[in-house]
Request: fold
Amino acid sequence: MTTRLMIIVGSVREGRVGLPIAEWVRQEAEKTGWFEIDFVDLRELALPFMDEPNHPRLKQYTKPHTIAWSKRVEAAEAFIFVTPEYNYSYSPALKNALDYLSGEWWRKPVGFVSYGGVSSGTRGVVGLLATTTGLGLVRVGANVELTFGGKLVVDGVFHPEAKEQAILAHELEELDTLAHALAPVRAGADT
Reply:
């Protein structure tokens, strides 16, 4: 049984290296045969700054973009956030996408592929952990951290090294395993 994996490109900036990195993640996930992939480029999704009048926990959405986003996230069983680090913190576009919803994230595994300068984007991930934990996402242990990840993008294509390949393979395996293990927990929350 395949796992519905959502890969989210967390940067919306012009010339971002996150898009080719996310394309690599998608290719590697497809190779496993374990996943049905929903590839979300937040730039294309173009969610406005949170504009719902009600708290997301109530699921009383009023905007078509929120209703559509809710359906996509609800359908997903696991997530990979491909995310930069901005000013020692997370991408505001990714945080906004998370904040739109609540229960749709509950008890689903999440992995990160972070990139940045010397810190490899890890401070951005650390900044997101309070939010992802609060939303009930379950973090996998293996996460890809790319130091100066932009240097591995040549002509718009990301060229990983063996270390990144191995870590991503382990991350994908953990996501698949956890998605199946957490399915009964999610089902119990619905009853």
Summary: The chain has a mean pLDDT of 96. The first strand starts at residue 3 and ends at 9. The chain has one domain: 3-190.
